[in-house]
């Protein structure tokens, strides 16, 4: 115990006194029968007279003491449980001397169980007149008096338990997060998607362009990787005949940390046989617009001072048309890599000469256009060489049938019609290996077993990944990904 503050020592002394008096400061025998929300729902609309005339106004609650007003032989406290707060009245004549002395040894932050009858105070507040009290857990640290503001932001992330305890608006974010995930799960299962689980430890990292975390399995004497995406395993299941599958999964990418990136994050990934990327645009539009209505009661939300309207239909624009719209790029950049490199320098980019033509174009797109898409927009038809797992476009084989959903200038979802030609897939993996040898640390490895699975035949399929954390950020008006992850990664 490193904290040696005066209050900490005082609470330790109280703990010792309680034990010496034969009081167990950490019992496990109290079972609350009512929550704060249930008290408010059942009795909140009753007048003082109606309460007194009610036969079943006896309640039993438990929670943390978050406020306390002492008037000598009587006190008021606020109890907070998972659903909210309720006030309780403590009077020596009603509690009895022993229980009241126990209460006098209780501090802010202690967890108590109590029973009593409801009444209204002179000011009309619904209150429990306590006739039974039990200390359930003695808190040795005081609750923080002020826990918000920029100076405390990192402390809030490091001690999330305190953040949730004293900041109701923070708890509301994570309650919404839970509702969002439930809504998504119900939406997909109602459309005959099957929820599955795939390996988090993989012998070959695949399914995304990202650097993996490495680990080592002692018994098998082999190197393994934390998954960067579940894609290749989910596609194996489509090959197996599970035509609609999804996974709400944890992914791990050995990359930088920012307001938009955490090395451990949550992704929804789903695959639908006999569907195209256009079908998934329709499905995504329906999913997110209905989700927004469910969580916020409207399809128009405020995100960091900007109104975002999720009402369908959403804008659809190709990568190349987005570049044309938001820059003065000459038409030659789309067919000539040297012209694309020259234009990238003109707009201030420092693009390596060895980068493929498609990747140069994506660098240009991200610089001139991506941040401009504030309202929900499907950006479609990406260059082939940045999409090694996507199906080629039937009219132009230099691009693929893919979209990214951009909202507030950031990627929320990525989807494409899947490549199911095993010969083409092998050739693309070989191309990725060449890029890896040339220094691209995010290029795909060859996955022979995945190619073998495709050789058995995968039906035409479309797949998509949606970033749950970024989606929650939008739905809760949170500026940083750390605000929507309970325990974000931080430096020591």
Features:
alpha+beta, OB fold (Dihydrolipoamide Acetyltransferase, E2P), BirA Bifunctional Protein, domain 2, five-stranded mixed β-barrel, 16 helices, 18 strands
Tell me what the structure shows.
35% of the residues are buried. The chain folds into two domains: 6-137, Beta Barrel (OB fold (Dihydrolipoamide Acetyltransferase, E2P)), CATH 2.40.50.140; 165-327 and 369-483, BirA Bifunctional Protein, domain 2 (2-Layer Sandwich), CATH 3.30.930.10. The strands form four sheets. An eight-stranded mixed sheet has the order 6-10-11-18-17-16-15-14, sandwiched between helices. The longest helix has 22 residues, at 168-189. It is 34% helix and 26% strand. It contains 16 helices and 18 strands. It is of the alpha+beta class.
Per CATH, the superfamily of the largest domain is Bira Bifunctional Protein, Domain 2
| Helical content band | 25-40%
User: pLDDT under 50 segments (min length 5)?
Assistant: none
Number of helices: 16
Question: Which strand-content bin applies to the residues?
Answer: 25-35%
CATH structural class of the largest domain = Alpha Beta
How many whole angstroms does the radius of gyration measure? 29 Å
Do you know the CATH architecture of the largest domain? 2-Layer Sandwich
Number of domains: 2
Strand order of the largest sheet: 6-10-11-18-17-16-15-14
Question: Average pLDDT value?
Answer: 93
Classification by helices and strands? alpha+beta
What profile does the largest beta sheet have?
8 strands, mixed
Distance between the termini: 19 Å
Described by the principal axes of the CA atoms, the overall outline is elongated
Looking at the structure, the CATH topology of the largest domain is: BirA Bifunctional Protein, domain 2
The tally of strands reads 18
